[in-house]
């Protein structure tokens, strides 16, 4: 078995991506992940006790990191307008409550979101590339991306071709990410792995490096359409990858767990993990996001409780 | 780090009532001791927690007689299924009072509350549950069903309640009665355990707990009424015990020191290996006889492993052991701190390079920052002697055979760790290591079903699992 190691400073990316064989050698040469150990570490970080001032900070930070998401067949302009106005003012009774980072919608609703958000500072993220399965020809995926960008999307959440990845056609996946990134123009690119389909942590680590080398600004766990979606250990593997990638290249890449994060308590566990695994530099909406819908309301309820000492209950936050 | 500074999250000290003074637990009652009472302190603050009686030879004699009577009249003749009921009851009370036990263990020992809460106390309960299950099934043990009689047990300060459980649970399950001495720096959870025995209506004399220091321990070991001696602690004391019982009919098990090799191959799961190294040596401030105190890392990945290890060590949170976010607590005593310092200074003097995690040490109490030494050779004292503190010696190797050779080149043989993604290498290396416990891609995992014990100067006998019964049954003494 070849020596496995993580690339160090001064490492040359173009060598790695010059052929399918070279790329495969590189990805399979990354150190393995021991599942039991990784899950134990993630669980241990989950036992941190975040109270009082630290909790207040964490709740506000988490709200600022939310990509408030609706990705349903039943989405309508009215639903998206409601969501967008909630993103700008999550707690109408409290002007000190920060806005979310973005709203995340299907490409056809980007225009509606833009009308409502205007210059509020809240970004518009659109899922593209035949989300969520990614099963379409490449030119259709690229057209999907361009449509979303032209309609005003600031961020594109693409899905990788899991079929190609799982059959070992890594260069194909790599080239597709590169092509989508080009189609994004100035929009930021988030690369969704659908970790529930990749299944192993080794695959998650390989996908992370693949997407980072292809130029993704963010790596994202899941579409929310496949279970399991985001988990603490999967996110930890991705945080380790962005940390190591910065050491090797000097470039920072963001991480976005999405799907299944519903409570403030869970969100705080993720922030602890960001803090202790990737480091405090990632504790910023530019580098860490939550893809979520119901999470926001729990964050707001907990925030109100911290502020007033009373727990208001679900009828005091808006259901959109 | 100002973006997200964890606010203090202390566990409540009010979870446990500490009495001003404690007596000896003999024949089901707390009685005064004939020796001079001594104080036990919180090593994190040096605050006196309580005054504790000292047992002298006459107290030991009383306790052994009570244990003998209980053995002859009650516990020995009792059917195993009835003994099991008491052990299950004790296990359940331990679970019910777990918070109290965890806080008390942290106060008296200095270990972080998260370890007392998540490791020590749950494992204690698990041990009692496990051996309760054996009590009525001894005929399937392979060692017969005949107990030895009165067991004299002397335990250390690193896992006070857990070591009590390792000793008391199998002894009682097999039908023995016990006289147990906790360490003089950490007597309080054993005394709370005595209260639990009362609460469980355990017949008087089955469990006797005598507090005191070395002399008390010697009196227990040398008492002619003791049939079995079980000791966990230093190799020096273990040797003295072996000499004291030589020529008598007493059965002995000794669980002594260690200088475990934690071997990291170049194909290891790197991030988990780093966690395993940290857990191996900094868990419980390194006060662990099976601690992975010698890191053997393959030269081709040594730089990468060290870089990652230092980065990880810098995130360890040292401080108030009652804070739920503390990773590294206080050193148990001034004497132990002095020994750790002495050996660390010897390491520097012998030419090894010292690196300590950047953390602020509290001004009162006994503290030592997580430390590693690089450039260590097999000849250095820090590679040979047990430091029993948060100090890691890093050595390198080139080939698997060199790793095995260096790992085995120690008078100890308690535990070892292997880190590689290659299954065949795990099996091959594990077979060649002379250590009682070998962990693969993990470290410091304890389970009541798994036997634990050492080779060479790490002692003899096994504790835990079916093998642990051998130490307390006549048929296990062949």
What is the quaternary state of this protein?
Answer: heterodimer
Name the strands of the widest sheet of chain B in spatial order: 13-14-15-12-11-16-17
Estimate the helix proportion of chain B, in percent. 25-40%
Number of domains of chain B: 2
Strand order of the largest sheet of chain A: 7-6-5-4-3-2-1-8
CATH superfamily of chain A, by name, is Aldolase class I
Radius of gyration of chain A: 19 Å
Query: Which range best describes the helical content of chain A: under 10%, 10-25%, 25-40%, 40-55%, 55-70% or over 70%?
Result: 40-55%
What is the CATH architecture term of the largest domain in chain B?
3-Layer(aba) Sandwich
Report the total helices of chain A.
14
Number of strands of chain B: 18
Percent of residues of chain A in beta strands?
Answer: 5-15%
* Order of secondary-structure elements of chain A: HHHHEHEHEHEHHEHHEHEHEH
**Which fold name fills CATH's third level, the topology of the largest domain in chain B?**
Aldehyde Dehydrogenase, Chain A, domain 1
How would you summarize this macromolecular structure in one to three sentences?
The complex is a heterodimer of chains A (320) and B (478). Chain A is α/β, with parallel strands linked by helices.
Task: Explain the layout of strands and helices.
The complex is a heterodimer of chains A (320) and B (478).
Chain A: H1 13-16, H2 20-29, H3 35-45, H4 52-64, E1 66-69, H5 77-88, E2 102-105, H6 110-117, E3 123-127, H7 138-150, E4 155-159, H8 162-166, H9 170-184, E5 188-192, H10 195-198, H11 201-213, E6 218-220, H12 232-249, E7 254-256, H13 264-278, E8 290-292, H14 295-308
Helix pairs in contact in A: 3-12, 4-13, 4-14, 5-6, 7-9, 11-12, 12-13
Chain B: E1 21-22, E2 24-26, E3 29-31, E4 38-42, E5 47-52, H1 57-75, H2 80-96, H3 98-109, H4 113-134, E6 150-154, H5 160-173, E7 177-181, H6 188-199, E8 207-209, H7 214-222, E9 228-232, H8 235-245, E10 251-255, E11 261-264, H9 270-282, E12 294-298, H10 299-313, H11 334-349, E13 353-356, E14 371-374, H12 381-384, E15 391-397, H13 400-408, E16 415-419, H14 423-432, E17 437-440, E18 459-460
Parallel strand pairs in B: 1-5, 6-7, 6-9, 7-8, 9-10, 11-12, 11-16, 12-15, 14-15, 16-17
Antiparallel strand pairs in B: 2-3, 4-5, 10-18, 13-14
């Amino acid at each position: 078995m070849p020596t496995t190691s993580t690339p160090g400073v001064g490492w040359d990316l173009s060598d790695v991506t010059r052929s399918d064989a070279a790329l495969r050698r590189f990805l399979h040469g990354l150190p393995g992940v021991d599942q039991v150990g990784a899950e134990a570490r993630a669980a241990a970080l989950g036992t941190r006790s975040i109270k009082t001032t630290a909790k207040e900070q964490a709740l506000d930070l988490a709200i600022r990191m939310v990509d408030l998401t609706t990705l349903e067949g039943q989405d309508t302009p009215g639903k998206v307008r409601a969501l967008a106005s909630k993103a700008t003012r999550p707690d109408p009774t409290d002007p000190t409550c920060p806005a979310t980072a973005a709203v995340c919608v299907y490409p056809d609703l980007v225009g509606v979101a833009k009308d409502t958000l205007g210059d509020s500072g809240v970004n518009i993220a659109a899922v593209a590339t035949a989300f969520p399965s990614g099963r379409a020809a490449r030119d259709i995926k690229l057209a999907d991306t361009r449509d979303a960008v032209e309609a005003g999307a600031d961020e594109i959440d693409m899905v990788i071709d899991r079929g190609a990845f799982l059959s070992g056609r890594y260069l194909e996946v790599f080239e597709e990410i590169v092509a989508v990134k080009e189609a994004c123009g100035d929009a930021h690119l988030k690369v969704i792995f659908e970790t529930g389909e990749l299944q192993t942590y080794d695959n998650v680590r390989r996908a992370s490096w693949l997407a980072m080398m292809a130029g993704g600004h963010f790596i994202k766990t899941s579409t929310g359409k496949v279970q399991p979606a985001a988990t603490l250990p999967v996110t930890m593997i991705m945080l380790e990858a962005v940390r190591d990638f910065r050491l090797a290249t000097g470039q920072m890449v963001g991480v976005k767990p999405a799907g299944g994060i519903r409570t403030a308590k869970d969100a705080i566990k993720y922030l602890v993990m960001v803090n202790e695994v990737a480091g405090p530099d990632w504790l910023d909406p530019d580098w860490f996001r939550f893809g979520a819908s119901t999470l926001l309301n729990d964050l707001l309820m907990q925030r109100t409780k911290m502020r007033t000492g009373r727990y208001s209950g679900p009828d005091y936050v808006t259901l959109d | 780090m100002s973006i997200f500074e964890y606010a203090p999250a202390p566990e409540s000290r009010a979870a446990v009532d500490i009495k001003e003074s404690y007596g000896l637990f003999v024949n089901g009652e707390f009685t005064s001791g004939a020796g001079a009472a001594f104080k036990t302190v919180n090593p994190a603050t040096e605050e006196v927690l309580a005054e504790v009686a000292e047992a002298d030879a006459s107290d030991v004699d009383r306790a052994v007689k009570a244990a003998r009577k209980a053995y002859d009249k009650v516990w020995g003749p009792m059917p195993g299924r009835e003994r099991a009921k008491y052990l299950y009851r004790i296990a359940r009370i331990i679970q019910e009072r777990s918070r109290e036990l965890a806080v008390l263990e942290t106060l008296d020992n200095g270990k972080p509350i998260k370890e007392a809460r998540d490791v020590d106390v749950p494992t204690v309960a698990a041990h009692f549950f496990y051996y309760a299950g054996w009590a009525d099934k001894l005929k399937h043990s392979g060692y017969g069903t005949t107990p030895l009689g009165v067991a004299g047990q002397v335990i250390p300060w690193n896992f006070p309640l857990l070591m009590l459980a390792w000793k008391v649970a199998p002894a009682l399950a097999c039908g023995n009665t016990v006289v147990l001495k906790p360490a003089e720096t950490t007597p309080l959870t054993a005394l709370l355990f005595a209260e639990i025995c009362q609460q469980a209506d355990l017949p008087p004399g089955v469990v006797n707990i005598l507090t005191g220091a070395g002399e008390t321990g010697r009196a227990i070991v040398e008492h002619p009424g003791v049939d079995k001696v079980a000791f966990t602690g230093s190799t020096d004391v273990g040797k003295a015990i072996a000499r004291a019982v030589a020529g008598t009919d007493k059965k002995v098990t000794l669980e002594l020191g260690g200088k475990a090799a934690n071997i990291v191959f170049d194909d290891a799961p790197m991030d988990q290996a780093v966690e395993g190294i940290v857990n191996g040596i900094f868990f419980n401030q390194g006060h662990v006889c099976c601690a992975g105190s010698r890191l053997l890392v393959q030269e081709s990945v040594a730089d990468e492993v060290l870089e990652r290890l230092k980065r990880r060590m810098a995130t360890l949170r040292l401080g108030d052991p009652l804070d739920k976010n503390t990773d590294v607590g206080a050193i148990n005593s001034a004497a132990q701190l002095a020994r750790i310092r002495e050996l660390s200074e010897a390491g520097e003097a012998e030419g090894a390079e010292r690196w300590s995690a950047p953390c602020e040490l509290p001004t009162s109490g006994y503290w030592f920052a997580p430390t590693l030494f690089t450039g260590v050779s097999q000849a250095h004292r820090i590679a040979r002697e047990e430091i029993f503190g948060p100090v890691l010696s890093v050595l390198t190797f080139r080939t698997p055979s060199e790793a095995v050779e260096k790992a085995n080149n120690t008078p100890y043989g308690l535990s070892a760790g292997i880190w590689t993604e290659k299954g065949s290498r795990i099996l091959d290396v594990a077979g060649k290591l002379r250590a009682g416990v070998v962990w693969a891609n993990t470290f410091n995992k304890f389970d009541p079903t798994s036997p634990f014990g050492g080779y060479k100067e790490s002692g003899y006998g096994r504790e835990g699992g079916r093998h642990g019964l051998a130490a307390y049954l006549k048929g296990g003494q062949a």
